[in-house]
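Design job #97: recover the sequence.
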């Protein structure tokens, strides 16, 4: 089984509140179906989650009453986004169902507590792909918090030991610097725990170290001796399909675990 996250940057226009990229999602769904691979799918929230969450500090937990209608708004927006994603999966012939994480789990201090996986396992056993997404969730310490699609990916990785983990985004992979602003930025083709150590000690990538390092670490945590974790550009038609078929594509691939 291959675990796939459709990132918020590819399924929505991150700069414009509640803008769904229907054609892109329809194409990615068709590429997944055509590959014939068994998959589990997670998605991000993009502009359906980040815009209002940022405005009201939802990720910091409860501090003032005005956050309550805002948190409810984000829950509604993310659920609507997920319904639209699932519509495209169904249209492509992939039986899928939206599973809001707040109905199945709680969090503590921003960390998802995955102690009740029965509904997810049962859906998957039936052959219905449970689709979870980054969302607002109740939190034992903070009232509410936000659990990202990446955290859900880590949970599903522990539950299902997929053969491969794929992050579909709007960039070709991880870069040594921001390629949109720095022409010397280079694509990092392969990440191992040694690459991570090099990035940490390299002064030339200081300004983006936090972001790249954090993503590399998260990717490495999802790898093992026989499972890689790949970051690819979903805006390039056919790239997800080729990757799922096992072809070499432009991407960043993390390998070998983090220990
Ligand atoms: C964010 O989830 C969830 C909310 C802001 C409510 P993700 O972090 O997985 O979303 P993307 O992929 O960055 O958009």
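Job complete. Output follows.
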């Amino acid at each position: 089984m291959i675990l796939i996250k459709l990132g918020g940057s590819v399924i929505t226009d991150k700069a414009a509140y509640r803008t769904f990229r229907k054609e892109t999602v329809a194409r990615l769904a068709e590429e997944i179906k055509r590959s014939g691979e068994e998959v589990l799918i997670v998605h991000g929230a993009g502009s359906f989650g980040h815009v209002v969450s940022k405005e009201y500090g939802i990720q910091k937990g409860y501090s003032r009453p005005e956050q309550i209608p805002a948190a409810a708004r984000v829950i509604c927006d993310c659920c609507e986004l997920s319904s639209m994603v699932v519509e495209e999966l169904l249209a492509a012939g992939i039986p899928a169902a939206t599973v809001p994480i707040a109905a199945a789990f709680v969090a503590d201090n921003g960390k998802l507590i995955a102690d009740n996986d029965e509904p997810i396992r049962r859906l998957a056993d039936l052959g219905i792909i449970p689709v979870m997404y980054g969302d607002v969730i109740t939190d034992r310490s903070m009232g509410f918090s936000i659990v990202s699609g990446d955290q859900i990916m880590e949970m599903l990785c522990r539950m299902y030991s997929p053969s491969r983990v794929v992050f579909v985004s709007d960039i070709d992979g991880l870069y040594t610097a921001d390629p949109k602003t720095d022409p010397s930025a280079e694509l990092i083709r392969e990440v191992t725990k040694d690459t991570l150590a090099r990035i940490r000690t390299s002064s030339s990538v200081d300004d983006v170290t936090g972001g790249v390092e954090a993503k590399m670490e998260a990717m490495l945590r999802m790898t093992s001796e026989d499972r890689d974790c790949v970051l690819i550009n979903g805006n390039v038609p056919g790239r997800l399909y080729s990757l799922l078929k096992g072809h070499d594509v432009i991407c960043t691939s993390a390998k070998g675990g983090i220990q």
